[in-house]
Amino acid sequence: MRPRGAFAVAGSLAIALFVAACGGDDGDETASASEGETTPAGDELTPAEAGSEHDLAGVCPDPIVMQQDWQPEAEHGAMYHLVGPGYQIDADAKTVTGPLVVGDVDTGVSVEVRPGGSTVGFQPVAALMYLDEDILIGAVNTDYAISSSGEQPVTAVVAPLNISPQILMWDPETYPDAESLVDVAAEGATVVTAGDTIQKLLLSQGIIDESQMDTGYEGTPARFVGDPSILQQGFISAEPYIYEHEVSNWGRPIAAQLLYEVGFTIYPEPYAVRTADIEEERDCLEKLVPILQQSQIDYIDDPAETNELIVELVGEYNTGWEYTPGVAEFAVDAMLEHGIVANDPETGVLGAFDLERVQQIIDTFAPILDTADIKPDLVPEDLVTNEFLDESISLD
């Protein structure tokens, strides 16, 4: 389960845990640090032609360090799909490092993917990016990018997910006539989340009142199973499967609605860089961003091998996070079914940002975020850019 809310908060152990999370080395044949097992060195890979669109050597940092906001899961598939054969898992540092690949093409640099969540003391990704400037790419939700825009500005360069998979879920047996979360909330249901951004959004719209707000969600099914009268946060790409197939004392369907449908319109986990690095890393981003776009499409088209890696990483990291092959497979189908992974509706480009939507996000969330670090006169161009996208890349 995910105890994360829509807006992450820093933990007191973040710096110590983050320092421990840095790692990764190079080599022709690499081994899992936890088990000592070797993985194939990637002899089947074809080196990118010098100077070609996939040749990142000498253009991008090596390794390209990418920071996720949570433990490995299918929603992060585009990032993990970049990791080619010969990868190394460092179970102590909680990293995976391997050749950065596009299909069977070796781009000439390696990629290191770091998980978030408990691994880094729940430190927000933008804060990690400013703590360790080795991180080039971070997955930063738009609401957090707004909240950090004054002191830790980041600019998103591609949106692998078009809308948020966040849901509020309820028990259809407790609320047999409910057709939406608004119907359930109207009956006085307590809204249980890990943070208060979702609740403040619903409060600002008059969907709930303050008496219904509860930020005590701990990421386990115990509360929902014990009190099926509540509305509880989750992901459309996980909880419906988990509760029906993996929570033995529930074992039946849940009902849910995407929060996107009631105004939670943030871009979830878009890939961002520190704003000041846009110019410094321009040559790299011009080549890397189309690769990131294509990686999402390639993952969705053929997720099996990457899902195996994701499940392997969860086991090797052993953080208490659980993730099964069944959830991973379900997640891919759910992300397609519900438009989580989709082309930008306005342009048809995978990974593009709608600036009108970003302005609406600013208008909605800036007033309800509890922070003084929002940049004055914030505009969409402070948060996102489409300039590095390949407009020919679309999901069929």
Automatic annotation (TrEMBL):
Annotated signal sequence range: 1-21
Keywords from the named record: Signal
Residue span of region Disordered: 26-58
Protein name: ABC transporter substrate-binding protein
Provenance organism: Phytoactinopolyspora halotolerans
